Amino acid sequence: EGGLLPEGLIAAEAENGPPAMTPADVHKATGGDKSGTTAAQAAIAAPVSQARAVAAFELGMNAAAAPFTGGPAASRGGDAASFPRGALGLPEVRLSSGGSTSSLGLPSSAAPAARGLTFATINAETLETAARDADFPVPAEEVIDKVHFLINNLSTANLDSKSEALKDVLPREYWPWFSNYMVVKRAAQEPNFHGLYLALLDKLGDNKLGASLVATTHKYIRILLASGRIKTHTSERSLLKNLGTWLGALTLARNQALRHKDLDVKAAIGDAYEQGKMIAVLPFVGKILEATKDSKSYRPSNPWIMGIMSLLAEIYAMDRLKLNLKFEIEMVFRSLGLQISDVKASDLLAKRMRLVGADNPDFAVDKAALPPVPPRPEVAAATSVPLPRPPPSEPPGAAPIPQESVVLPGPGGMDQGIFANLAAFVTISPSLGLLSERLQLKRVVPVAVDRAICEIITPVVERSVTIACMTTRELVVKDFAMEPDEAVVRQAAHAMVTCLAGSLALVTCKEPLRGALAQHLRQLLQVPGLEQATLDNAVNTVTADNLDLGCRMIEKAAHDKAVRDIDDRLAPGYTARQNAKASGQTFYDVSVMQALVGTLGSSLPESLRPRVSALSPHQSRLYADYGRIRTKEETDSDAGSDAGDNEHSLGPASVEGNAAQAAASQLQEKYTLWQQRLDNIIAGDPQIEVRELPPAAPLRMAATEVVQVLGDGPAREDAGLAVARKVFMRVLETAGTKAASGAYAAALGVIAASTTPRLPAELTAVYVRIEDDRKYQRSVGEALVRERLLLLPELDAHLAAVITASQASGAMELAVHLLKSAAQDPHPPLTGVDLATTSEVLAKLAQHASGGAPLLALLEAARAVAGPAQVAQPQPAQRPEAARAVPPPAADPNEPAGLREQVAVLFDRWAAISDEQPSEKVHAPFVSLLQQSGFLKGDEGTDRFLRVLLELAVAHCLASEQPLPPLSPPPAGQPPAIDNRVPPLSFLAIDAAVRLLVLLISGHNGGAALLSRALGVVTQVLQRDSEGRGEAFNSRPYFRLCIGLISELAPKVDTNAPVPEPIDENAFAILTAFASAFHALQPLREPGFAFSWLELISHRKFMPAILYQAGNRGWPAFEGLLRGMLRFLEPYLRNAQLTASVRDLYKGTLRVLLVLLHDFPELLCEYHFGLCDCVPPSCIQMRNLLLSAFPRAMRLPDPFTLGLKVDMLPEIQHPPRFSPSPDALLESTPALKGEVDAYLANRGPATWLAALPSRLLLAPRDIAGAGTRYNTPLMNALVFYVGIQAIASQGGPAGAAPTVSSPAMDIFGRLASELDTEGRYLFLNSLANQLRYPNSHTHWFSCILLSLFAEAKQEIIQEQITRVLLERLIVNRPHPWGLLITFIELIKNPQYSFWTHAFTHCAPEIDRLFESVARSCMQSHDPSPAAVPAAS
Q1: How do strand 384-385 and strand 406-407 relate by DSSP bridges?
Q2: Which of 185, 334, 1110, 1208 qualifies as a cystine partner to 1062, CB 3.0-4.6 A?
Q3: Phi/psi of residue 357, each to 5°?
């Protein structure tokens, strides 16, 4: 294939035997389909004919009695009566040692030649061996034959008859034998037919049989769990999984318990953990738990279920767990609708010992601890090396795939382990059912994935790695020009290059891999007789299921090659740094320094120029962020290889043995010396306030020297955590000594700022858990809080809980001390809001205590100074300080005092927390603080909180706007350039607000109700801001806010699915909430938000999601949004007032309509009436676009076909779908509706028809606003209503032409003759609006227009009909099908004498126009002048 080694295929062969030929190969080898059998069946006919005859003889029937024709029996494995399949449906015939009677009752005396014959779909040796020792009564041979025959021919269609026959054939005393047969030979080997066998069990209706089946299943499960083969044999693990599915369906799915004495699931997992059998047991447990989806009793809330899930969560968190087991656990949680993060992990396995090393397949082997293995010889990418095949284990009837020359690592020397277990990771969708077995997808898919990857991996990896290495080298060499430590440079380079190379490879390979995988699947799945649609469905399903697997493997290859290549490119720099370090010289990169003096220094901005000093914290963080982009699974493991063996991952380097001991000893020695020096300085003045000392004071300087203890190696962060633990314990040991507490706390702050940003979270967790009253010492608590080493929400919750539970004096004294500092200290460590929960607890205690008045006064004082301006604390760089950004907007008169300041403090804290813990998804302490503050009760308080929060975020965003420099003056004689630049804004506060709203809505069950409330507040804030600012209104903050919420909360839909998959009601409620908010903000109400609004409603996360819903239930809401935009544009388009901004908005609307025409044409078909109502007559192209839509399932007839008989088209017989309903068309004028119905029924009264034109006029006061004298919407509704009623009431077949003397024709004829020119033009446009795709309405209205043309007594009527049709044809495409066929009929049919009318020749320009249009309409048939005689 010219690619990499398909080791997934080789590994599968090593374990399961060589793969069989593809169906196409079998078909070719056997000369095609024979005797009605499939190719695979024909291929096995010769090898097994003798065995089949023997089996038939043994069963007491001839070979013709049970033809092998591929029915239910042939499609399953089975006993002697149904030939079980190996690969690709081939029966496996194995000769074993003889015996008196098999476990299935196959007697040895029946036929000497067949003695010992067994048939198995998969290798069930363990079960069959155990079954031989069974001690149940075995029925007679003829009974066994009949039972086999009944089960082999069982199907859903004959369940009733087969169950009755089985009751008659098999007495109840043989139920144990039957249970043994069903479990060993059926349930264990035929998972696809479990449902059929369970249905048979229900039909038999015998409780004793059900209990026997459960007991037998438990028996063989215990046998498999005790077998050592489940660690090494895939077939054994498949048997165990199948029995797990069977057991779950027998028990949990039927609300029956799994008894502890039969199967202790958690004990089984624990034993598997110790023995290295989790590779088999975890999938088995997952299959059992899958049955709970059909259970009413065993749901995720069940304690027994949650106990198992907690144990699985504990296993999931274990280090070096194989990736395939992580996948199994994730699938179990997904099947139960749970998140792993929501389940608290147990600690049941903490004291258990497990196997270590290569004998444990559950965990990756620590390769650093293994003896060195001789390296493989490097082989060029194009070198083909045929590998030896393992000994065949397939039966003679299963032909293997021919051996191919495979290629060793090419691009980047991709690790062979990635392919080693490919067969274990491919996904076969259960929806394919029997088709997966017929096509043998488990064999074919790994080969196809392997070949597809080999085909595209070389160019993808080479290109991605080359670009990533060039970029990384340039930046790293510049940024680290003065860095002496090569380990720091290597760490940063690896982080950046792996991230860039992996991302580039992932983006580049996806579509080529999709195409290659589909192509190889089609080549491997050529089965004669298989319908193309079925094959396409299977290929598309398998491709979609396995595309991500291939992408991840290519991404891993790019990672590995990028690390090697970047090390090669930076090798001279590494060597130069090592040489400089060895010689004691200061290192600097000469080439970069020279460039800095030259052009590089002048071309780069100041922030990007190389520095003599180290990188700034912001630059250092960029390189650290590259490492965080890769998920834990990507850094610790790869697809199919041992987890944790990536030696190039970011983080401290692992050291083993003596090296680790030496490093720890050196760290301890440095720490001891530093502590002694610090203690000596503290002894001089133990009670001094460290925070009052100048930075150059010896105590402050000594505290900062802790960074020297940590060193500069790659393990600096781990060293920082280790030293921080010691320093924290020292803080507790010196409690009561102000100088010691302050100095050691300052040292912790230095560690957190320099090496360990996560230290505050770690220390907070330790502080909360530790049971040591010394932590409540005032000096200890205040020092830690001042250095921002304790997360205040967690501290607040902890103090409140301790005080509530035990009223501990230490915790209460610390809380009072901190609140006193907040109220009285000019530089407080925190604010009263930071301890809101604790303050409430203290207030309740004070109210019930005799001397509680001073404490209440202190609490009030602390709350009174809660403004953020009084909190002088260092803030993280680039964090939105919402309260200081701009002066706060005018407060609501009903707004409680201090609310804005309180929300500002909480918002600042949230921004800091989300910035420090970006990966955290729950933030329970902060949400708890909001709840305790009363902001999440779902009342007016929640609305006020959201309003203030959004006002602060918008204010911060707008305050960041910087004025742009003026444009350069234009050259002399040229007009000044138009300034289209947009001032930059900072969206940090907006994004923080979005993250908080998403957290509350999706992470804490706020749901659609909270989203609706939040969007309502957004609408109110935007409208008030728009009114207040007028033309200066800036919509960008609100657009960013809405886009963020849509991107995070809108449900994902598969737009490629043939049928929309239903989403849950909460997801649809979220979409409805967005639609309602957009309706409230439509351009007619907020013109300044129009451009942002149009982009929001057409966003890729919103428009497809709301339109691609089952039952089209999202269509009405979206159609209302479309009409809102069209109504806004209508006056501008009607009056041709197209300023630059209106023109851009019109173009944007057209593009949205084009997307709908392409992807959702049924929407435009169904709502054409209401949409056309909003389009002015002058917008011809937009109206044509709306009317050109036709259902995707329809193929339009060619309107230019010679002799086309429109009335004979089958589509003309069917009415279209439309909205609104006929009764709603004239609901605004019920009197007119009643009169129309009366006239259509009996043509009375006669005076009504004469007065009808005047009923269509507008009141004088409304004429100026509408731009016309006529009520156009009413006229459109009248025309459409009359047409619908006339079509429904006329006799004859559907789609028949209207009769000239019908009441509807009377109404239309009177309107055409008595309306003035303006009214007639609007009336004819109403008729033309129904000329759409082929349907009964199009045909009827086309006939109406042609009849009006033929019956007109005035040529002006004919001229206006021609104008209406012609002006819709001379604009750019698309043109509605009904419009084309009407105009072609008009100009070609001599009945209408079109070319004889004077208006077709009134001017040379008109003459040429008609000639051009006529030639266009008939160009495909006869473009000669004779085709248009009158125009020539």
Answers
A1: antiparallel
A2: 1110
A3: 110, -165
